[in-house]
Amino acid sequence: MAKKESKLSLAQKEQRTAYKLLIPALIILAAVAFYPLFEVFYTSFTDRVFASGTDDAPDFIGIENYKSLLGLTIQQLPPIIDPNTGDPVIDSQTGRQTYERPVRVLPRTPVRYREWFQFSFLGKRYVVGARDPEFMKAIWNTLVFTFVSVFLETVLGLGVALVVNSHFKGKGVMRATMLVPWAVITVVSARIWEWMLQPTRAGLFNMVLSRLGLGDGSLSFLSMPNLQMPTLIAVDVWKTTPFMALLILAGLQLIPKELYEAGRVDGAGRLRQFLSITLPLLKPTLAVALIFRTLDALRAFDVFQVLMGNRMYSMASYNYYQLIGNRNMGLASAIGVIIFIFIAVFAVIYMRLMGVDKE
Fold first, then answer.
1. Which of 233, 256, 347, 356 is least buried, going by the fewest C-beta atoms within 10 A?
2. Which residues make Cβ contacts (< 8 Å) with residue 59, sequence separation at least 6?
3. Domain check: are 146 and 257 in the same one?
4. pLDDT value of residue 357
């Protein structure tokens, strides 16, 4: 009995010592992380102005900033009727029925809505209005950028990791070389790509396309709407694929070689080994890589800011625009909170779907 009590007291002492050692770290974490996070949450409910130069306290406005950012409405567009015939007016160029302008249909008071996009459903035309359509576009841009870039980086990173994990001459040089794009600062790499994407023959891509007879050397990758997003994704994939490859390579190194030897003895080919051994054992590593990369992609700023400026926003670059350009600190804080929520949701989804919390 005395031995059990002594063991229990020893465990309690060790537990108390561990808590005491953790207290300084928790205090520092609260000071550098929790307090700024709380400050951003609080500021998002105010009309605080950045660098206002006055000591006046900001007014508490509740969720008005969130309403302004996320306010949406859907209105049906009535067709334009010819007063003489009473029939819908048909556009002579497109041959399609014409509709009222959204500015006449969307609510104007007490809150003004502006057109975000239009769509047809069951033979009727609708317009989606937003109080801040630029932010809604920024959300869409960020989600498309995140899904496509992370998918491509994961697939290409897995391929690169499998190659450099095999045995061949010059493997060490190959591993060092593949990290060069990731080692370059994002702003620097974006500037390099901006030069290569110049809409003249001074740009590398236009020069190559012109030499191949595929253009006149004036293709504007950063101004044409249908090329802007693919260009941003290509730049990000070039830079960040080595990061994904490095994380996946670390996971491949942890898989015991004996499992592959046992698989070969059982007659499993390369594809079967990959599907039955490599992928299942890589699942925790892939989950970590996806969480890290998705977190970075959802708050992508430098690529959008350097290459696009005000032509196309991500959520983070629109946050910068509102804070620095408009000095609207309350609205910018609300954008920061929304980005935080997106990141938290994606992290939970990854952990649930890939079973990281059960590993």
1. 256
2. 46, 47
3. yes
4. 54
Per-residue model confidence as pLDDT tens digits over 274-311? 878 788 888 888 888 888 888 889 989 989 999 988 88
Residues 313, 261 contacting (CB under 8 angstroms):
no
User: CA dist 198 to 34, 62, 293, Å?
Assistant: 44, 46, 28
The span from the first CA to the last CA of the chain, in angstroms, equals 37
Q: Where are the alpha helices (DSSP H) in the chain?
A: 2-29, 35-43, 64-70, 102-105, 133-165, 171-178, 180-183, 186-196, 204-211, 225-253, 257-265, 270-273, 279-298, 302-307, 315-320, 329-353
Cα-flanking dihedrals φ and ψ of residue 330, to 5°? -65, -45
Number of domains the chain is built from: 2
Predicted confidence (pLDDT) per residue in 34-59, tens digit: 888 888 899 999 988 887 777 677 88
- We report the CATH number of the domain holding residue 304 as 1.10.3720.10
Q: For residues 157 and 178, is the Cβ–Cβ distance under 8 A?
A: no
Query: Which residues, including other chains, have CB under 8 Å from residue 347's CB and lie 6 or more apart?
Result: 291, 294, 295
Does 242 reside within a domain?
A: yes
Q: Are residues 92 and 163 in the same domain?
A: no
Amino acid (1-letter code) at residue 57: A
244 close to 157: Cβ distance less than 8 angstroms? yes
Residue 33 is assigned to a structural domain of this protein: no
Q: 3-class DSSP state for residue 74?
A: strand
For tokens 């499998």, the residue is 162
Residue 73 has phi, psi (to 5 degrees) of -150, 145
Could you list the residue range(s) of the whole structural domain that residue 327 is in? 134-358
Whether 193 is in a domain gets the answer yes
